[in-house]
Amino acid sequence: MGEEKRREPRVEVKLAIRVACGTLDEFAERYALNLSRGGLFVRARDPSPAGTPVSIDIQLATGQQAIRGRGVVAWTSGPSAPGEPLRRPGMGIRFTDLAPDSAKLVDLVVATQPRAGQGSEPPGPPEEGAPAFEETVLEPPAGAAPAGESPAQPGPRGTLRPSTRAVGIDLGTTNSCVAVAEGGKARVLASRQGWSTIPSVVAYDAHGRLLVGHPARAQMVVNPRDTVYGSKRLVGRPFQSPTVQACRDRFHYDIVEGAEGEAAVRFAGRAFSLAQISAFVLAEVRQMASQALGEEVTRAVVTVPAYYNDHQRQAVREAGRLAGLTVERIVNEPTAAALAYGFGRGLSEKVLVYDLGGGTFDASVVDVQGEIYEVLSTGGDTFLGGVDFDNQLVDHVVYRFMEEQGFAPPADRGAWQRIRDAAEEAKVALSAREKALIHVPYLCRDAQGEDVELRVEVTREELEQLTARLVDRTVEVCTQTLAAKGIGPGDLDQVLLVGGQSRMPLVWKRMRELTGKEPSRAVHPDEAVALGAALLADTAARIDSVVLIDVLAMGIGVGLPGGRMAQVLPRNTRLPARKSYELATVRDGQTELELAVFQGDSAQASECEYLGTVKLGDLPARPRGQVRVAVEFTMGQEGILSVSARDLASGKVEQARLATRDTPEVLRAKLQMPQAPSPARGAAAPPPQGAPQRRGFFGRLFGKRP
Ligand code: AMP
User: Do 101 and 194 fall within a single domain?
Assistant: First the structure.
């Protein structure tokens, strides 16, 4: 704030703060010290003088409102003098007017948190290092508009009028994108800085501020432990799942076990659910869309990978809710891409959607008949994506560096992240050029204390040699996906390449060879999925809506004694689907039945992802085998599973609960599983080069991996 403004303390300043919490409970716990009935304390680099009126707008990281109202600066505290213990400046703000919900929240915090200030004055500054509200925006309103007047242009959230439109969101592993459609035409909504996608990265900086998107991605090199990326691979998975265990070796941040046994992440000293992490990204995307439209976006169609299981889809719904979005529909990414390609064109084509993104690969055959999009077959690999291409290149340049220098790069995460970034940049450049330089200046010092850089030139040919095996694997998956439904490559009318890594010329070449066709240039590899979702969101509001027919990407089955899995709904089953499975009591007087439900294509339950246990109680006590129960599995069009059970004697129907609380030990004992599995989806393909050989959860459980 300038001196000019200091002399006019009556001009209201706007205090807009986003706190690093996903829920109000967390908010209450974390910021109790900064709140009292009378006001709050805010750290500010340049506090406004006492008497300055303030409009207060504190939101959770998800965009949810926490405290909104008005106040006045009661006092300011300056920075510590030299020699004193560190104290950053701040100000106590006395509430003058709070929105009813905010007043309730303050009451609740004060009543339930013993550390909260009880008085009618703002609390004093908390100790350095303790969480504090940090000023993020502190400015007089544009044109010194009278207090209380809403800005006409898009401003902070909450000041826009609610939108009647639903947007389409591609919540990607590497990047996320949002689009809107009107009258059958879809367009991507860019950020104010002109980005059409934002990195799906969430971080806390050194000041405890939450960063999402480009700012989070930008500080990854210096702060890898507090930067969460690639979390899409972890969403909705049990912590002990082999996939999560494999990710623990690859990712720089901490992956921990959540309260329900699910994977969660820990950074900046706190644990977050994966739904919260996704919610941070969704909230950012939502804000980007709201700014671009000048309306508050509250509804969305969100895309997910075709192989996402029930829990993962539920987690995305939850993330939407936390981000203040009603998720109107969840749609599979390849279907959305096909929609972006075919919508309104009256096509009759069989289309192969090849989606190679940052972390995963998906192949789907979609039959497009006018506005009917039917997925015929789908396949993929959750451990194959651009990052594996980067790994190959990193190994190569590090080898060259070691040859030249005679020693390895330092073992610190920051240095390796810089090498990785430079390698990725070169990889992307090699899609357009024949040669690229990988250059990391000041990488480390040698034994004499001299600065050492990494400088390696790479040709496209070298990159292709290094990564040919990875591209081969995608081609194999395509061949298997086609073969699963007896479709020959020659039966395809079109090939759509989506996902950033599909831009690699070798991918084009290999797909040309496989199908004998030039892949389509009609869809944008980064935007097609969001555009398709937006079209769906738009058509859902109209009568001439499209029809999407999807298939189950991975089978659903139940665990049998001995560790086998009985498939109930096999892979590629058309959705929606319903199937009954009958079972009987195995002990005299047994009044409870339990069924472990798995998703995956293996005959061994241990090689599939555990979804949960169906528990049925209150069965009549009869001799074994006399109580028979029909369990019905219903998989909705969005791939969300519900299970109900009917006691065949009494006809009593119960909605069964899919509890994920069984620990691996309990599950293992129940199913008497004999051996260790590999990742559910990765089972179809060998582990990627350089993939960790760490044992997964069953591996640790059973001592060795097959
Ligand atoms: P996505 O998840 O679809 O955003 O894809 C991200 C991945 O695509 C990252 O691994 C990028 O390095 C990679 N990528 C982006 N652009 C290119 C390009 N032009 N050539 C090769 N790979 C690319």
Answer: no
Let me know if 607 is a catalytic residue. no
- Confirm whether 232 is a catalytic residue: yes
Check pocket membership of 358 for ligand 1, CB cut-off 6 A: yes
Which atom of ligand 1 sits closest to the CA of residue 498? 3
pLDDT band (50, 70, 90) for residue 669: low
**Is the Cβ atom of 172 under 6 angstroms away from ligand 1?**
yes
Q: Is 524 in the pocket of ligand 1 (CB under 6 A)?
A: no
Between the CA of 357 and the centroid of ligand 1 the distance, in Å, is 6
User: What mean pLDDT do residues 240-257 have?
Assistant: 85
Q: Cα-atom radius of gyration of the chain, to the nearest Å?
A: 28
Beta carbon of 171 within 6 Å of any ligand 1 atom:
no
Element counts in the chain: helices (H) and strands (E): 15, 35
SS3 state of residue 109: helix
Residues 24 and 78 in one domain: yes
* Residues 49, 93 contacting (CB under 8 angstroms): no
pTM: 0.70
Q: Give the active site residue among 12, 355, 526, 550.
A: 355
Q: Rounded to whole angstroms, how far apart are CA atoms 298 and 537?
A: 12
In total, how many domains does the chain have?
3
Domain that holds residue 233: 167-333
Q: Which stretches of 430-573 are DSSP H helices?
A: 460-484, 505-515, 528-540
The residue type found at 253 is: Y
Helix (H, G, I), strand (E, B) or coil at 596: strand
Q: Does residue 404 carry a catalytic annotation?
A: no
Q: What tens digit of pLDDT does each residue of 428-477 get?
A: 999 999 999 999 998 988 889 899 999 999 999 999 999 999 999 999 99
Task: Pick the atom of ligand 1 nearest to 355's CA.
Answer: 3
Residues 240, 224, single domain; the answer is yes
Contact 303/336 with Cβ under 8 angstroms?
yes
What pLDDT does residue 664 have?
A: 46
Q: Are 363 and 354 in contact (CB under 8 A)?
A: yes
What residues pair up with 455 in beta bridges, in sequence order? Answer: 439
Q: How far is the centre of ligand 1, averaged over its atoms, from the C-alpha of 435 (Å)?
A: 18
- Out of 57, 134, 170, 424, the active site residue is 170
CATH number at residue 276: 3.30.420.40
- Token pair of 327 as six digits: 């998720």
Asked whether residue 156 carries a pLDDT value surpassing 50, the answer given is: no
Q: Which protein residue has the closest C-alpha to ligand 1 atom 7?
A: 358
Is 333 marked active-site? Answer: yes
Question: Using CA atoms, how far apart are residues 368 and 203, in angstroms rounded to an integer?
Answer: 41
Evaluate whether 590 touches 564 at the Cβ level (below 8 Å).
no
Residues 132 and 201 grouped into a single domain: no
For residue 305 and ligand 1, the question of a CB distance below 6 A is answered with no
Which atom of ligand 1 is the closest one to the Cα of 173? 2
